[in-house]
Specification:
By secondary structure, the chain is α/β, with parallel strands linked by helices. 22% of the residues lie in helices and 29% in strands. It is built from 14 helices and 34 strands. 39% of the residues are buried.
């Protein structure tokens, strides 16, 4: 098996888009970020390291934080020149090349090419897909040689081929053994070659992983830092590493109530009687030198006397008096029940890292180090409102066709549990002037604006126009259920800037998009580390079959429980309509069914996110 650490991923961005007016395709914007960034977001988790093959705009590509390897060929700018540069520079046994203009490349590309290469005993592996010949109707293979995993030892062959004037990506390998790996979805290998193709991809629903990657790369932690006393720092995120000023414990100490002694005294074959010549309490170190044949009465946490290496618990002593004890031979091992200085934490070592959520255990650790205050990120300010003429606030009478606004209260609860500073702007009518005024007010007061409703196909026309005036929206629709209509962008008003998250209007869709898209984005802005912002996924068998359409990510409400044998399983709550909020109160988890998942059979393992403890 080829480990991902053995693979260097190379994004080929060295050429020019002739059908794009000789623009650098890798830097063309899609959903608010460069095409090559989309490629990197899908490639990086599959490889040990990544690099860019770039011949121009190196300063622009520096934002990627990757090594830049230009072509060696002065008179050739094709993909083989980039491959040659990659093989020359890569320090791993394998190189995986992908083009900069294929933002939908498979998330399992490296793993499947590696498996195919090994199975065939090949030197390189390329992706192939099946398509229908328009003339004959027959199924034919289409090869994608730019999506290639190759041994770096193949460099001499490529050097010779290029020196001979060869330029074909599909033929350079010559006598090297080639493996062709079949992928089912040909669309993931499509290149964006024209402005029309770019516009078409821009208009498509984006996948959940792509939306999550866009949101992650679009935000950074808040810059403002507060120094808070420990009692006020609970549930806040550390803004800097905390280095321990002392060792914990500060000295060797006893882990038990008992007798500190020399373990060599117990090495014989018969019980031994030792003199008790001192009593050592916690906080009161001993004053007597403990010589062989003697011991000291010692309490838990008390400083170990010099020369003693072990503690016999008092319950293992055969006989005890004020002045002596009798102990069986080899009743303990040397070093037993002794805690060493710095065993928990040594002075100068990091005690807690930046981004750590400060919970009760963390406050206790900081207090044990004598640290009275810590630097934390300031609270994230989030303004939110609901949109819709049909919405009524609590306490208002319901007119015909109207409903009470539940989304604001759901959002309020989720935001407060997350630790945000919230600003509730109420209900905004479906009127352009009202929406613009609300957005302007929110932008002036908050870091993030969250709306519910007003982003679906039927409601978004004037919303799009207003957002275009105030800023930029990077995507409008996500290939997920519930929650397809969701907007993400940024607006700027009078020198103030705010992130915009436009959630759907249906109540369950609000919760699904919040938990799986908004929540990690907000936590990243709050300074959370990866552990704090990721959702806890568990694998549980399905109690019964679950309906699921392949090609779309679905989040279904579930109930995880134990059967009579104690085994866990999960079942859906029933009807999964996005407006059935009661199903969320019945559920104790969300069943996560990725886009590639089809119908789920009874007993099949599925991913779930438990609601318990979810902030």
């Amino acid at each position: 098996m080829i480990a991902k650490q053995e693979i260097t991923g190379l994004i080929l961005a060295g050429g020019l888009g002739t059908r794009m007016g000789l623009l650098d395709k890798g830097m063309l914007r899609l959903h608010g970020q460069p095409l090559a960034m989309h490629v990197l977001q899908r490639l990086a988790p599959q490889v040990g390291q990544a690099a860019l093959n770039v011949n121009q705009h190196a300063q622009s590509y520096a934002q990627f934080g990757l090594p830049i390897w230009p072509d060696e060929q002065a008179d050739y700018r094709g993909p083989l020149a980039g491959l040659q540069s990659g093989l020359r520079h890569a320090s791993t046994p394998y190189l995986l090349t992908v083009p900069c203009d294929s933002p939908l490349l498979p998330l399992d590309l490296a793993a499947r090419l590696a498996a195919g290469l090994q199975q065939a005993g090949a030197d390189l592996a390329i992706a192939v897909t099946e398509e229908t010949d328009t003339a004959t109707g027959a199924t034919v293979l289409r090869r994608h040689p730019v999506f290639c995993l190759v041994k770096t030892s193949a460099l001499p062959r490529l050097d010779a081929y290029l020196a001979e004037g060869g330029r074909k990506m599909s033929a350079w390998h010559g006598p090297l053994r080639l493996a062709e790996v079949l992928f089912e979805d040909g669309l993931v290998f499509c290149n964006i070659n024209t402005p029309e193709e770019l516009a078409a991809v821009q208009a498509q629903d984006i996948s959940v992983p792509m939306a999550q990657a866009i949101l992650h790369s679009a935000v950074t932690p808040l810059a403002e830092i507060e120094q808070l006393p420990l009692p006020q720092a609970l549930e806040r995120f550390l803004a800097a590493d905390i280095i321990s000023p002392i060792s914990v414990p500060a000295h060797d100490n006893s882990a038990m109530d008992g007798y500190a002694l020399h373990s060599a005294d117990l090495a014989g074959d018969a019980p031994i009687t030792l003199s008790v010549i001192d009593t050592i309490l916690a906080g009161r170190p001993g004053t007597v030198q403990i010589v062989p044949g003697a011991c000291a009465r010692i309490m838990t946490g008390a400083v170990m006397p010099a020369g003693c290496d072990s503690v016999v618990p008092q319950e293992l002593v055969l006989q005890a008096s004020e002045h002596s004890i009798t102990v069986a031979p080899k009743v303990i091992r040397p070093g037993d029940n002794r805690r060493f200085k710095g065993e928990d934490l040594m002075a100068g070592q990091p005690a807690l890292l930046q981004g750590k959520l400060l919970r009760p255990a963390e406050l206790g650790l900081l207090a044990s180090l004598g640290i009275a205050s810590v630097p934390v990120r300031r609270r994230l300010r989030v303004a939110f409102f609901s949109t819709g003429d049909e919405l009524r606030s609590l306490g208002e009478p319901l007119d015909a066709g109207c409903i009470y606004d539940s989304n604001r209260y759901t959002l309020l609860g989720m935001l407060q549990r997350l630790g945000c500073e919230v600003l509730d702007l109420g209900i905004v009518k479906d009127q352009p002037q009202a929406l613009e005024a609300a957005l302007r007010q929110a932008c002036a007061q908050a870091d993030v604006i969250i709306t519910s409703g007003g982003v679906s196909s039927g409601a978004a026309d004037f919303t799009r126009e207003i957002l275009a005036q105030l800023g930029e929206v990077h995507f409008w629709q996500i290939n997920m259920r519930p929650g397809r209509p969701m907007a993400f962008g940024r607006i700027a008003v009078d020198g103030h800037s705010a992130l915009l998250l436009g959630l759907p209007g249906n109540p369950v869709a609000v919760m699904a998009t919040f938990y799986f898209l908004a929540r990690p984005t907000l936590l990243r802005m709050m300074g959370a580390n990866a552990d704090a912002s990721s959702l806890p996924l568990l694998r549980v068998p399905a109690q019964a079959a679950i309906r699921k359409r392949r090609g779309r990510t679905e989040y279904q409400r579930g109930i995880v429980e134990r059967d009579a044998s104690g085994q866990q399983h999960v079942r859906v709550t029933g009807a999964q309509g996005s407006g059935i909020l009661r199903s969320m109160t019945q559920a104790n988890c969300m069943i996560v069914l990725p886009a590639e998942q089809g119908p789920v059979a009874a007993g099949e393992l599925v991913d779930i996110v438990p609601f318990q403890g979810l902030t």
